[in-house]
Amino acid sequence: MIQWNKETLEEPNSVAQILTLAETEWNARKQLYERIKRKVINSELVSVDDNKIKVAFENYINSMVTGYFAGKAPVYDVEKVSDPTKLSIIKKLLNKVFNTDAKQDEELKILIDYISKYNDDATEFFDLAFDYFGLRACYEVLYENEDNEIVYTKQSALNTIGIFDYSTPVNQIGQLRKWNEKDKHNADITIVELTTINGKKYYSPTPGDIKNLKEQEDKRQPSKWNMLPCIAIENEMGLSSFELVVSLICAYERVIQNSRNTFQYNDDAKLKITGYEPQNELMVTKLDKEGNPELDENGQEKQVLNEARKNEDEALLKMRVFYTPDQSGDIAWVEKTVQDTALQNHKKTLVDLISMISGVPNITDLGFTNADNASALDRKFFALEQMITDADRQFKKAILRRWETIIDRINKRKHKQYDFRSIKIDLQRNLPTDKYTETDRALKLRGLLSDESVIDMLPDDLDAISEIEKMDLQNQENIEKNLENMSKMGQDVNNAQLNTEQSANKEITDNQAVKSEVKQENVKQSDTVSK
Fold first, then answer.
1. Is the sign of the CA dihedral 223, 227, 231, 237 positive or negative?
2. Cα dist. 150→15, 259, 293, 395 in Å?
3. Rounded Cα–Cα distance for residues 370 and 356 (Å)
4. pTM of the prediction?
5. CA distances from 349 to 62, 259, 338, 352, 477 (A)
6. DSSP 8-state class, residue 279
7. CA gap 363, 346 in Å, rounded
8. Which of 29, 120, 154, 426 is the most buried (most CB within 10 A)?
């Protein structure tokens, strides 16, 4: 985490110093990114030798954690505070006025749905989580496009860093981003972008002195927001999802590599023959063009492999039968013994340790494959759930601040009083579910919960509001169709409608009569008690 003085943040010297600190973190993140890809050569964390076996545990761990945490989009709802006693106490003690207008709550919910759909909130959430778990941090920036749409989008953790103040708890005061681009002369130039509450400033290094930054004042963009329009979520411990098990992964790869080398050695094993003398010598003196021995720098005759001996050995290997001259002769391959059971136990131990420390379950484990219901799967993911508790807290806090920034801008522009504190954020876990069980549970809650809530509980990813509107339209069409059929069959539609209305009116009248009788009885009882 980079902390800086808010008053001197936008000075070119400060930006240059922050950039130097950021470069160190970016280099570390690039190495983590290479471990996830396992493709780039000539890196400290990646083997230069492509022939060496690479087991992409890093990619597996990061994909599993990200998919479990962010495989489903966040669910937003507007929480209504309806208890008048609570509202009165809070207003009296804290001078806080809550919005009790149900229509305004509905407007806020519609706004959130519209903005989140426009920004493809599910993809944005997944991309942020991938960077957070893989590269230790993730970043987002907000802006308003040419169509006056509010946009929030991810910025790469490989070239972005958050800047915080020295308060407790710390507050984000800026965000720095660096990239390279081509100028009008097709030359590479470096651009440094600093985002603060005052807007955006752009800096470029002086030619020949990259640490000396100069602001491009013509590109300065004043802020349209009343709050900092960017979000940084950085892992407080500075750890990616797989960083603690890198050494175990390397050990596992060495075991696999050693096994591979042993099998390759045995595949190319040498043939050992005892009790037999070859007819040709292994080495002979190298002769020049004139037939004289060649000498090395020490005056010794140079020795080279005897081609006749090589041909003799190849002939022996191709022979189907070989005879030794006496009873002491023997023929056998020189091989390395493979302790397969020990190797398998060692590999299993390493996999278990990787799974335990990272919290990601081993999907080849019998306990995982035998998990035949959602409850059993939940238990297998218990360790991972504990690992991501801090991430869950940080993401909810950051997402709420995103909506606070957006709603603050809407309130100022449209003279509204939407309260961002009423937004409820639910980060769902992405686990295989038993759709029949989930559907049965949701249907049993009909009558206790609203139809919208019941539809949201169904495991079919339906739009509750749209489905309710479709049901209302379908019911209306069914009523009209029934009346039309009755008309075709010669029945009096008007009387049917009249009878329906009379039945409804009679029911209302009966209810009113019952209420009147109850009221009169209560009055009589009150008079009796008074007397």
1. positive
2. 28, 56, 86, 20
3. 19
4. 0.71
5. 21, 16, 18, 5, 65
6. S
7. 18
8. 29
